[in-house]
Amino acid sequence: MSAEFDLKIHDTLADANLQLAIYTATGRLKDKRIEVTADDRLPDYQELRTQANALKKHAIDNLDHYLEEFERNVEAHGGKVVYCKDATEVSDFVLDLARRRGARLIVKSKSMTTEEVDLNERLEHHGLESVETDLGEYIIQLAHEKPYHIVAPALHKTRYDVADIFTKELHVARETVPEKLTLIARGVLREKFLKADIGISGANFLIADSGAVVLVENEGNARLTTSAPKIHIAVAGIEKVIPRAQDLAVFLKLLARSATGQLLSVYTSFLAGPRRTGEVDGPEEFYVVLLDNGRTKLLPDRSKRQSLYCIRCGACLNACPVYRKIGGHSFPWVYSGPIGAIITPQFMGVSHEPALPFASSLCGACGEVCPVKIDIPKVLLELRSDVKKSEAREGQNRIEKLAFRVFAWVMTHPRIYELAGRMAGSMAPAGDGKWIHSVPAPMSVGPMKAWLSQRDLPPSPSRSFREMWRQR
Amino acid sequence: MGNQVSLFVTCMVDQLFPKVGIAMADVLERLGYRVDFPEQQTCCGQPAYNSGYRAEARTVARHFLKTFQASETIVVPSGSCTAMVTHHFADLFQKEPETLALVHAMEKKVYEFATFLTEVACVEDVGARMEDVVTFHDGCHALRELGIKSAPRRLLAHVKGLELREMAPAEECCGFGGTFAVKFAELSGAMARTKIDAILGTGAHTVVSLDPSCLMQIQGALSRAGLNLRTMHLAEVLASR
């Protein structure tokens, strides 16, 4: 494990206020999801999950076909599709367009894909102003942080934290009432919408048969972002494509329910191309940036490529007992929680943070709530195997490798196993049947030390089961 | 024939909690089963599998398949070790069709203890008596991989003198997770303490589960916190009279 990962986990666990904030916020989202997916509220929930999985599987298995169909249909509406292989290509495209149009100010609606490529930082580095307009995203942009959660980026901030951020960054009088804080942000952002030259959004779905970008949101800021400025750029991962508009009947029933426990989000926008002749609003130019950034690396693996089915609802984060303890910023990349633990090693390579797939008790709560039925625990197990293969190639972690070879040898030699058990039992401190609080210093190393750092150890029984059985 | 069962007690019960295995044998014998213990048995290989060492897991899995090949029915006092055999062995032998066939045959013969009682022996009342207030902790693999939810509760409901109080939430992980417990010790400990808060909320004196590993984690954390609650395997409760 990298020292950084270890330290971030430790610091988050040690912060009592943060622990309460994460646990409460995720608990609320988790309970709402359970409520609206219950049998009496959504009787066909499991069938919808199965359908969503089948649709995503079909789309990913035929990704080339649907991306080309999507591109043809976007261009038929007068829009343009731009393929980008990485972060640099995305920012180069935006910067070049901004330069040619003389654009200075960009408004953005919430998008994990643009967070993934650090778009704001890259644009600001070149002198452009790029403003997040989703309230949570705006808060963390002002705080110079990354999203804490896929759907609730400022989940870790209390209203008092937000009051401090607004006072410091916007130079306004301190307010702690949430509605008043929202009004302050609204006042600032309304001006930005009116002055912006370019609006950048993400995409929840790209519909191949209609060439449309679908955006799901609650605040109306994405609708303003995509309609007020003269130019709209949607940035989307290539895996967002679905075959038909009618498939949304499945996905839209699942997305808001899984994310926030809403039946449907407040706004669902279908954007297909720029303003047409005779229309009074909408952008004059419409671009869809299709981002690879590591996604195509997943395609050859028939099992692990299911990671690309994700619709970014965040349900797995709220259900995860690990996320609920270590929060979003302990994770090594912008994608946190169980889904982050499976896509980060695949997009960035397993050596980016080799401990990440191991930071799970494999409880399976993530797979249980995933609306598109990604078998997250299975993918984690496969990634663990990938990490060990990579370590073996690099000659790393040799002691652990040796320990498991010894384990396999002992477990296939029952007499040695029994002897080893007896030896371990005779070395264990006598606890008089009580659980053991500590062991002598020479024994307090490795896994023993780690176990005893948190818990007591069971006393060794005088006889093993097999010995008792023989004397029975 | 038909009433012979083999015990796979798991390495953890064999080495650390032998009374659980004895209790399981007692309950089965009282129900009229003839119980045997194949002496060659060791472990299911899950520690290696969950740690990413698939070749080593495969070696241990092969040993398991050989040891229990002749058994008709195998009963296991753990949801997690049962799931390793019934849900993960197949992943290990995808490239070995002959072994895979043996795995699929094995999958049909291996039962977690509570499921065996309710689904195969078709009993809910095993004639147990225990005066106590208990809460039941769902092991994650039992619950989510094997779908075991009502069987242990139906069995507990028939224990005379016993009151079951559900914790909120019963299905949240205790934080054990095999090598996770030592690789991420501080995090695992924090998860255990959240579980203990849920247990204390019920006012129960005893925590019951069907997985010895969860019980080791919970009892270890209870003991560390100086709390005078005990943990018991379901088999031990059902063997009480």
The helix-strand sequence of chain B is EHHEHHEHHEHEHHEHHEHEH
By DSSP (H or I, 4+ residues per run), the number of helices of chain B equals 13
**Spatial gap, N to C terminus of chain B:** 29 Å
Biggest sheet strand order of chain B reads 2-1-3-4
How much strand of chain B?
Answer: 5-15%
CATH topology of the domain at 63-296 in chain A: Rossmann fold
Fourth CATH level, the homologous superfamily of the domain at 63-296 in chain A = NagB/RpiA/CoA transferase-like
Q: Outline of chain A, from the CA principal axes?
A: elongated
Low-confidence stretches of chain B: none
What is the oligomer described by this structure?
A: heterodimer
Could you describe the largest sheet of chain B, including whether it forms a barrel? 4 strands, parallel
Q: What Rg of chain B do the Cα atoms give?
A: 18 Å
Shape call of chain B: globular
**Helix percent band of chain B:** 40-55%
How would you sum up this structure, described in words?
The complex is a heterodimer of chains A (472) and B (241). Chain A is α/β, with parallel strands linked by helices and 472 residues long. In chain A, β5 (205-207) and β6 form a beta hairpin. Among the domains of chain A are: 63-296, NagB/RpiA/CoA transferase-like (Rossmann fold); 428-470, no CATH class. Chain A has a 6-stranded parallel beta sheet, sandwiched between helices. Chain A has 21 helices and 10 strands. The mean pLDDT of chain A is 96. Chain B is of the alpha/beta class and 241 residues long. Chain B has 2 domains: 4-118, Rossmann fold; 125-239, Rossmann fold (3-Layer(aba) Sandwich), CATH 3.40.50.11810. Chain B has a 4-stranded parallel beta sheet, with helices on both faces. A 4-stranded parallel beta sheet of chain B has the order 6-5-7-8, with helices on both faces. In chain B, β7, α12 (212-224) and β8 (230-233) form a beta-alpha-beta unit. In chain B, α5 packs antiparallel against α6, α7 packs across α9 (150-157) and α11 (185-200) crosses α12 (212-224). Chain B is globular. The two termini of chain B are 29 Å apart. At the A-B interface, α1, α16, α17, α18 and α19 of A face α1, α2, α3, α4 and α8 of B.
